[in-house]
Design a protein that fits this description.
Elements (H helix, E strand, L loop, with lengths): L1 H13 L4 H20 L9 H11 L5 H4 L16 H10 L5 H19 L10 H10 L3 E7 L2 E5 L1 H9 L12 E5 L3 H10 L3 E7 L16 E7 L25 E7 L2 E8 L4 E8 L1 H9 L4 E7 L5 H6 L6 H11 L1 H4 L2 E4 L4 H12 L9 E6 L9 H6 L11 H5 L8 H12 L4 H15 L5 E2 L6 H10 L4 H18 L6 H16 L5 H18 L22 H15 L12 H32 L8 E5 L4 E5 L5 H9 L19 H32 L3 H27 L5 E2 L20 E5 L14 E4 L3 E5 L6 H17 L7 E4 L4 E5 L12 H15 L4 E6 L7 H18 L2 E6 L14 E12 L2 H7 L5 H8 L31 H4 E11 L7 H7 L4 H12 L14 H14 L51 H7 L4 H10 L5 H17 L16 E3 L3 E2 L9 E6 L5 E6 L2 H9 L10 E6 L4 H20 L27 H8 L2
């Protein structure tokens, strides 16, 4: 260092430096020598890459409380803290005189300054060294370190906590510090990860039990978990939580590999250990995947050293870097950054980088799932998903919102499963299986198990990390029980349903499991869970049944002991069976009894002395629970009889948890020892419970594949059941699939007959099919269709409706139509008028042309192509020419679809078309009544209308002319203030599609209805008259004979002949399940579930009376179930009475009634954890239920599923444990009236047989005409309230 100082001085002098500069340079060298001699130097500087990373991250800080801290941040330091010694050195260099003295001062002050900057108020150095070591290990992660009951961060990390987690700075802000309470850790980490940051969570090392040490030990700490955007779930400590958290699958890491056959997309799920390889994608498909979001940064881009495929695929940019920058700028919110790699093996090279990035072992296995666009339809294009509302956009109705019930919010996993199914249409085999499931559900009356919806990622993560709590295992047990029940069900339909669900789950997972393997796995999991977890106990109810009654104790002692026992035992009580840890629980109970004895020995003599003296209440001794020290002590007022007695007894002042004397309370040596033994016993019991839960998680890893399959089945079954219920309610049909479960059919040859694609009576999915005002359309396409029509006539709606029906049918789901036959489509392309893309530097027309390039690259004879309003962004002739050329290309490709256009010049071109038909949107001329016309024009001023369109002609004037010309008679024309006939006779669309062409636009009418100034509209009408009418030349084109006459007539007369109105949909609801045969006789009645929730373990030895009360805890529901099991009133006997009443009612019906006696009615049963089949949707049902307390209730309804849910929500009356039997009487007005009558008769019959009924108010109802269903003439909630009595 001395040589360095001399060298610096000599070089500065030789360079002709000024004297002040030389002094400053010498000062820095002297300071360096002095500081290095005073203390060894530790480098805290980070490399350039890390400093640049934090500089970009801090560039987004904008909160005032966070920006204030930035002045104390230096991103070149490992913690982001400015070095105080460096600041002193910088200040000293500004002094021109006293260089040596300043250097000495700097050297002396540097260690103190560095130490003082990181010193707490108590004078002890904080965790600076530990923070620094963590940040050196994870330089690009936020370090959160456990300090007592808080998690703290310093420097750069503290600024980000204030910015993203909404926390306040700690202290004065120099150095920057921030923290969050222990209970808010998960939310804080979630906020940081959502901001794209990684978090290193550091915990204190658990120590053996210690209490009352005279000095505080230095705690050891460790990095518990590193949470990243690709691994965003904080699992550490979850095993100790009382509430379980469901973790959805983390967003995958994506990699794009350009190849000759298209792009290959790699999706890596580090949590599930899978990598999905999808080959043959277009650039648009990659963009759609990026737009969908749900990916973790960075985006990996494979770029080999020399690749012709990459050069061709990346031709959008002049070179690779431009494409990379374009992707990063377009999808910055989803991608963040793009990382390039060039390994020869693009798959293994990606996995190697991910293992390093996520601290995984080099041998960490990944399951490769390969899929190709040759085996299944292409992923949904972004424009298609946007038009169907699967990507949220203003004004676009979301298809998912109408596929699931709206009155009850569907559970999120089910909704996500359906959304993924639509975005990634399944291969034919899976689509056929899904349709089979929906068809079975439509006609199913048997009860189905209600599955616990647990995401597969949540199962894998918690079992792999052994961080699953008792609540999770109870939910997992419910799931396994439901799947096992389904897999072992008999009858004509349930086995086929189970096989189809298993097929769907296995195809989604990429595994092969049989029903027997799945059943055995679920049975093994259930046995393991039930051997450890008390599965009948209701978690989260706050029950304290395990507390001893202590009825004989004094009130002060009882209250103190209950509080003390609750705080210490509640964290582990009820999580595992008492029989699993008999020794640990026995030790806790014995230690608790000793605490009670010692406390009574210390307190009761004091209380007796107080009572003997008859002192005032303020001098009464008391028992106090100190929550900070977790101890029970005695408080004794001074100068009281109890105080003098305490001296005689030799009571002492106890020590607190840190070894300090507590002079305000008293205890005995025996009490202190008993408290310490009890706390130690509770600590041991909690550790043993934790070990049992971790061991159970490790044991269940053996059947992890079966559990993930069960999770997938539960989610799929719930999603499809809810979809079927809603579809039947909305009058949707189940389309016929024109393909089989094998491989995708090959493209048809030029001479082959195209597969049938026909839709009968479809309607927009966002409208109500039962509403008579809803317009239905039918369509059959063998090739392309050129669709013309006016503005706001429904062209875009037709395209969306066709796409929705085709997509839903291809996925095996219900669709809004009376009937449909859907062939195999390998792509669904719905394109509409595009906006510009400023980030790409493209106009709206350039975006359209790029999108149409994607269409032409991907189109095949198996594609569905729907193009709307192409060419609006350019000059009419050029737009029509390009549109004509594109129509010819699509026609030559022999694909199916619709090309909707306003470019009427397209009809005048000599197009080379062989398989294109012409369709038009129908319009009609109507004369409105005065009030209706006024409303039609949205309240426009009558004077302004008359001024713009002229006065009404006199009565008797000749009619004729174009609408809007003022011609024609008007009977009300002589009346003052009457509307001109030009405004009463209007031309408007019918929203029906029919063969032909249409050259009308109705643009002026739309402009008037949108309240454009009438002067502008009137002038536009005058200018419009100056243009020659367009008469399309259709000679030689397909459909010319049918379309030419209509088109010419429409152009000349301004009106087309009205097409016949399509008949309304009149298919009975029962026909929705046409794919399955009629159900056979119902299965035998289910046995009543009467297992007690709190059954004792066999072989348990008798315990003392006090401990027996604590061990033999049982919930009220289990007591009720046991009492009901002994009752002679069973649900089967009530169902028999209901069946007899219903059969008598059917037999007494007159001829011609809307309800037929038919086959004998068989009651269906719904047990705990089950739901009625979707076949009950809309059917009038009469039911009888039996609550857990043994009471019965009878009712009727047209919405059985909702009614059962309302009954079960009454948890205070044993609602979840009820069992129910019902009879379905059909769907008609007579059936609804019959259900009411049967309900009343059933109540009277049950009363006669002595059944304990909750309510018999409806027994007086004998004759009910019409109406539909609730048990009390109200909705489900009212019926449930009546059931509550």
């Amino acid at each position: 260092m001395q040589r360095l100082g001399s060298l610096c001085a000599s070089r500065a002098w030789s360079a002709g430096l000024a004297r002040p500069a030389l002094s400053a340079l010498s000062l820095r060298c002297a300071a360096s020598r002095a500081s290095s001699a005073a203390a060894p130097h530790v480098s805290d500087a980070v490399n350039k890459d890390v400093a640049e990373y934090w500089r970009k991250v801090l560039g987004g800080v904008d909160k005032p409380t966070a920006t204030v801290l930035l002045k104390n941040i230096d991103v070149h330091q490992v913690l982001g803290l400015k070095d105080p010694a460096a600041e002193l050195e910088a200040a000293a260099t500004s002094d021109e005189e006293g260089a040596e003295a300043a250097a000495a001062a700097v050297a002396a002050a540097a260690p103190a300054a560095r130490r003082g900057a990181f010193t707490s108020r108590r004078g002890r150095p904080p965790l600076y060294s530990y923070f620094r070591s963590v940040k050196k290990q994870f330089p690009k992660a936020v370090a959160l370190v456990r300090v007592g009951e808080f998690y703290e961060a310093v420097g750069t990390d503290a600024v980000l906590l204030v910015q993203h987690a909404g926390l306040n700075p700690m202290g004065a802000g120099n150095p920057p510090r921030a923290g969050c309470p222990r209970q808010n850790l998960r939310r804080t980490v979630e906020d940081l990860v959502k901001a794209g940051l990684s978090v290193a969570v550091c915990e204190e090392t658990p120590e053996p039990y210690s209490y009352g040490s005279m000095r505080t030990k230095q705690k050891q700490r460790f990095v518990a978990q590193v949470v990243t955007p690709a691994n965003p779930h904080l699992l550490h400590g979850l095993v100790d939580e009382d509430v379980d958290e469901h973790f959805d699958e983390a967003p995958p890491l994506l990699a794009v590999v350009p190849q000759v056959g298209g792009y290959t997309l790699l999706e890596v799920s580090a949590e599930l250990g899978t990598v999905t390889v999808t080959e043959g994608l277009t650039e648009d498909a990659v963009y759609a995947r990026l737009h969908d979001g749900g990916l973790s940064p960075p985006l990996f881009l494979h770029m080999p050293a020399s690749s012709a495929a990459a050069d061709r695929r990346l031709s959008e940019g002049t070179f690779e870097r431009e494409w990379e920058q374009r992707v990063a700028s377009l999808f910055r919110s989803q991608v963040g950054i793009v990382e390039r790699y060039s390994d020869p093996d693009w798959l293994e090279g990606l996995l190697t980088r991910i293992r390093l990035m996520m601290n995984l072992p080099a041998s960490e296995p990944f399951t490769v799932i390969r899929s190709s666009t040759r085996d299944r339809p292409r992923p949904l294009y972004y424009s298609t998903a946007l038009n169907l509302g699967l990507h949220r956009a203003r004004g676009q109705p979301c298809l998912l919102d109408y596929m699931l019930p709206s009155n009850t919010s569907p559970q999120l996993p089910a909704r996500r499963w359906l959304r993924r199914l639509l975005l990634l249409p399944p291969p034919p085999a899976m689509a056929v299986a899904i349709r089979r499931i929906c068809a079975i559900l439509a006609g199913l009356e048997d009860s189905l198990p209600e599955f616990a919806l647990i995401p597969a990622a949540s199962i894998v993560l918690k079992l792999r990390n052994r961080e699953a709590n008792d609540t999770f295992f109870r939910e997992l047990g419910r799931l396994c029980a439901g799947v096992q029940e389904l897999m072992t069900s008999g009858g004509p339909q349930l086995p086929l349903l189970a096989n189809s669900l298993l097929d769907v789950a296995c195809r989604e997972m990429g595994v092969a499991l049989t029903r027997e393997q799945l059943r055995a796995g679920c049975a093994a999991a259930l046995q393991a869970i039930h051997s450890v977890i008390d599965h009948d106990a209701v978690p989260g109810t706050g029950s304290l049944d395990w507390l001893p009654p202590l009825a004989e104790c004094e009130a002060e002692v009882r209250f103190g002991l209950h509080r003390f026992f609750e705080v210490n035992e509640k964290p582990f009580r009820g999580k595992v069976r008492d029989s699993v840890l008999p020794e640990e629980y026995e030790a806790v109970e014995l230690a608790g009894e000793r605490v009670q004895r010692e406390l009574e020995e210390a307190f009761l003599p004091l209380l007796a002395a107080h009572k003997a003296e008859g002192e005032a209440a303020k001098l009464r001794p008391s028992v106090t629970y100190d929550s900070a020290n977790n101890a029970l002590w005695v408080k004794v007022p001074k100068n009281s009889a109890a105080f003098h007695k305490s001296t005689e007894l030799g009571l002492i002042h106890p020590h607190d948890r840190n070894g300090k004397l507590e002079t305000s309370v008293y205890a005995t040596h025996g009490l202190q020892s008993a408290l310490d033994d009890y706390r130690k016993a509770c600590w041991d019991a909690g550790a043993a419970v934790r070990a049992q839960l971790r061991a159970l998680a490790e044991q269940l890893q053996r059947v992890q594949t079966e559990l993930v399959c069960a999770s997938t089945i539960g989610v799929a079954a719930t999603a499809l059941t809810e979809h079927t219920r809603e579809a039947l309610r909305r009058k949707w049909c189940l389309p016929t699939q024109g393909f089989s479960a094998g491989a995708p059919p090959p493209p048809p040859g030029p001479e082959d007959e195209p597969d049938k694609f026909e839709i009968v009576d479809m309607w927009p999915y966002w409208l109500d099919g039962w509403d008579p005002r809803t317009v239905h359309n039918s369509l059959s396409l063998e090739g392309m269709a050129l669709l013309t029509g006016p503005n706001m006539a429904g062209k875009s709606t037709i395209l969306r409706s066709v796409c929705a029906v085709a997509l839903l049918g291809a996925c095996g789901l219900y669709a809004p139509a009376a009937a449909a036959t859907i062939p195999y489509f390998d792509a669904f392309m719905l394109r509409n008028f595009s906006s510009d893309s400023p980030l790409e530097g493209r106009s709206a027309f350039a975006v359209e042309m790029t999108e149409m390039r994607y269409v032409l690259e991907d189109v095949s004879p198996r594609s569905l192509v729907l193009v709307d309003e192409l060419g609006k962004g350019t000059e009419v002739r050029a737009g029509a020419s390009l549109a004509g050329a594109l129509v010819e290309e699509l026609d030559a490709a022999r694909c199916r679809g619709i090309f909707a256009t306003h470019l009427h010049a397209l009809l005048d071109l000599d197009l080379n078309l062989s398989a294109t038909e012409f369709y038009q949107m129908e319009t009609e001329t109507v004369e409105l009544e005065a009030a209706e016309a006024q409303g039609y024009w949205l309240g426009a001023g009558r004077d302004q209308l008359a001024a713009s369109y002229g006065s009404s002609p006199a009565p008797g004037s000749s009619s004729g002319g174009e609408p809007g010309s003022g011609g024609g008679s008007n009977d009300g024309g002589s009346q003052p203030g009457a509307l001109p006939r030009a405004l009463s006779v209007v031309r408007r669309p019918t929203w029906r599609i029919r063969p032909g062409v249409c050259t009308e636009s109705l643009a002026l009418d739309v402009a008037r209805r949108c309240r454009l100034p009438l002067s502008v509209v009137a002038r536009a009408a005058q200018l419009y008259e100056q243009l020659p009418p367009l008469v399309p030349r259709l000679a030689g084109l397909p459909g010319a004979a049918a379309a030419g006459k209509d088109a010419a007539g429409a152009a000349a007369a301004g009106a087309a002949a009205a097409a016949p109105v399509l008949a309304p949909w009149d298919v009975p609801l029962e026909a929705a399940g046409e794919a399955i045969a009629a159900s056979t006789a119902a299965a035998a009645a289910l046995a009543e579930t009467t297992a007690a929730a709190g059954a004792e373990q066999p072989g348990a030895e008798a315990a003392p009376a006090r401990r027996a009360v604590r061990r033999g805890r049982s919930s009220s529901s289990s007591n009720g179930a046991a009492a009901a099991a002994d009752s002679r009133w069973t649900i089967e006997s009530a169902a028999t009475a209901l069946q007899q009443v219903a059969q008598d009612a059917l037999a007494s019906l007159p001829q011609g009634a809307g309800v037929s006696a038919g086959a004998p009615l068989q009651p269906q049963y719904v047990a705990r954890g089950q739901a009625p089949g979707p076949a009950t949707v809309g059917a009038s049902c009469v039911y009888v239920l039996r609550r857990a307390d043994g009471h019965f209730y009878a009712g009727s309804t047209d919405a059985l599923h909702d009614r059962i849910r309302a009954h079960r929500q009454r948890t205070g009356r044993g609602g979840p444990d009820m069992v129910l039997a019902y009879l379905s009487l059909g769907r008609s007005q007579d059936a609804a009236a019959l259900a009411k009558a049967v309900e009343a008769a059933a109540i009277r019959e049950l009363q006669h047989r002595g059944f304990p009924l909750v309510s018999a108010a409806d027994a007086r109802r004998r004759h009910v005409a019409g109406g539909s269903g609730s048990g009390n003439g109200a909705g489900p909630a009212a019926a449930a309230a009546s059931e509550g009595g």
